[in-house]
TrEMBL record:
Name of this chain's protein: Leucine rich repeat protein 1
Biological source species: Podarcis muralis
One GO CC term, this protein: cytoplasm
Keyword Nucleus appears in the UniProt entry: yes
PANTHER family xrefs: LEUCINE-RICH REPEAT PROTEIN 1, PTHR48051
């Protein structure tokens, strides 16, 4: 049998014999077998062959009545030491498969006792192939199509792979099986679409797709294991028009490059990317920045070359519908309750509720305004689509929030209908801290980018470091208070 592991051989005679001490452990293959008749060795019995990359024919050691001791205290860690009588050496094994090591050691014990050779798992004492004793390959760089391994397989031990300028039309499925991959650079290819299975690369920290033909970055990718591992993402020089709302699930992102795309907006919850330090979105089509952009805390920011609009707080986009629909009331109450219970749970005493959407209306202050039309949010297609059942489900969720004082009871498609989840996810927050959904006032204000980043690249050739930021208001009161402050500040 053969055992791949790391080996260092130490002579016990040194330094008196003038021999050098043990070198660093080297990748090796051990084999148990009989030397070919007439071949070196002689003396009969079973021999141990230790082959390394530097010395593939290997060193042979007779085993019969020649093992002084087997040190097996750390066998569970894949380590053991074989002390031979003649020559006086200690063969230290490490990084071996535990099961295989145990079998190998017991076969050596039997060989030492001179057990009949037929009962031992012997193999030929032939030198191993070079690939068996070479250090596992962890890095591979390919920069032209002719070097791309279309027929050979990728070493499964790869941790870094660059395959640029290879004219790849899609991501090679073989790459997606490299589970140790930490860094993947597929820049300058012809990739149009990303497979969801990129999310199976559980160790992936850096992904570069610069200079491809991507038109989107899928929501499923944002919900994959990349959420927990991805720290650097380069999507520059593609054709991406928008990123999904779920993009902000990639919470570990530190570096994000989106230059030279066709982005007309940034994910509106981008402020949730709390680890983000380096952001560049130069030369896109952004007219303004999302409201949550102000929450970022960056080291460097580049928004050069976007067609930013001139902010005008006095020209609001009024989407406020008064009276608010029952749906708007209920959803606002749910979100506000969640955020209050998150920040100060003690302010939310549990209440016993009767079970009916009417109680929801009472709770949220919409009493007396319930009409059939108010059961659906405005603009949601045909009458009654926001049905009674959905509202009851929302009400039940709200009830659980209050009843159990769960600080952040998560909602998902298992708890609420998916369209409700979507609407709740898309809620906007007013300057007063409260939520609004489809009924709000929207305007743009000027933001100095130095308030979110240490180093700011000028946004245009005029030397400006200001950009328009979206602002939402949940009520006329909130907007008029803002307007008062704004008018005073410019007076
Ligand atoms: Zn407000």
């Amino acid at each position: 049998m053969r055992l791949p592991c790391e080996v260092s051989v130490a002579s016990r005679l040194l330094p008196s014999a003038g021999l050098r001490g043990p070198g660093r452990a080297a990748r090796a293959v051990l084999a148990l077998g009989k030397p070919p008749a007439g071949g070196g060795g002689g003396g009969g019995g079973v021999w141990l062959l230790v082959s390394t990359a530097r010395h593939r024919p290997g060193a042979k050691y007779q085993l019969r009545e020649n093992i002084e001791h087997l040190f097996t205290k750390f066998v569970e860690e894949g380590k053991a030491t074989v002390r031979l009588k003649e020559p006086a050496v200690d063969i230290c094994l490490s990084k071996a498969n535990v099961g295989h090591l145990k079998t190998f050691l017991s076969a050596m014990k039997l060989a030492d006792r001179g057990t009949s050779e037929e009962s031992l798992p012997l193999s030929t004492l032939a030198p191993p192939k070079a690939s068996e004793v070479e250090k596992p390959k962890t890095k591979m760089t390919i920069t032209s199509r002719k070097d791309y391994p279309f027929t050979q397989s990728f070493p499964y031990t790869l941790e870094q792979l660059q395959a640029s300028y290879c004219k790849l039309p899609r991501i090679d499925m073989r790459i997606l099986c490299l589970k140790s991959l930490r860094k993947l650079d597929l820049s300058h290819n012809l990739i149009k679409k990303l497979p969801v299975t990129i999310g199976d690369l559980v160790s992936l920290q850096e992904l570069s797709l610069q200079g491809n033909l991507l038109e989107s970055f899928g929501a499923a990718l944002c919900n994959s294991t990349l959420r927990k591992s991805l720290q650097s993402l380069d999507l520059s020089q593609n054709k991406i028009k928008a990123l999904p709302a779920q993009f902000c699930q990639l919470r570990e992102l530190v570096h994000l490059k989106l230059d030279d795309n066709d982005l007309i907006r940034l994910p509106f919850k981008i402020g949730q990317l709390s680890q983000l330090r380096f952001l560049s979105v130069a030369r896109n089509k952004l007219p303004f920045l999302p409201n949550s952009f102000g929450k970022l805390s960056l080291e460097s920011l580049d928004l050069f070359g976007n067609p930013f609009e001139q902010p005008n707080p006095l020209a609001p986009d009024i989407q406020l519908k008064i009276p608010l629909t029952l749906w708007e009331h209920s959803a606002r109450a749910t979100i506000n309750y969640r955020s209050v219970s998150l920040s100060s749970p003690s302010q939310c005493p549990p209440v016993d509720l009767p079970s009916a959407p009417v109680s929801m209306a009472v709770l949220t202050g919409a009493e007396g305004r319930i009409t059939p039309g108010s059961w659906r949010p405005p603009g949601r297609g045909k009458e009654g689509e926001m049905d009674f059942t959905s509202l009851i489900k929302l009400h039940y969720y709200f009830y659980q929030l209050r009843r159990f004082q769960v600080q952040q009871l998560p909602y998902s498609c298992h708890v609420l209908p998916s369209h409700l989840c979507h609407d709740l996810d898309m809620s906007k927050s007013c300057h007063c801290g409260r939520a609004c959904l489809s009924s709000f006032i929207q305007t743009t204000v000027t933001m100095n980018l130095h308030s979110v980043a240490h180093t700011v690249v000028l946004v245009d050739n005029m030397g400006s470091t200001e950009a328009p930021l979206l602002r939402y208001f949940c009520s006329l009161t909130c907007y008029s208070q803002f307007l008062d402050r704004h008018l005073q500040s410019i007076r």
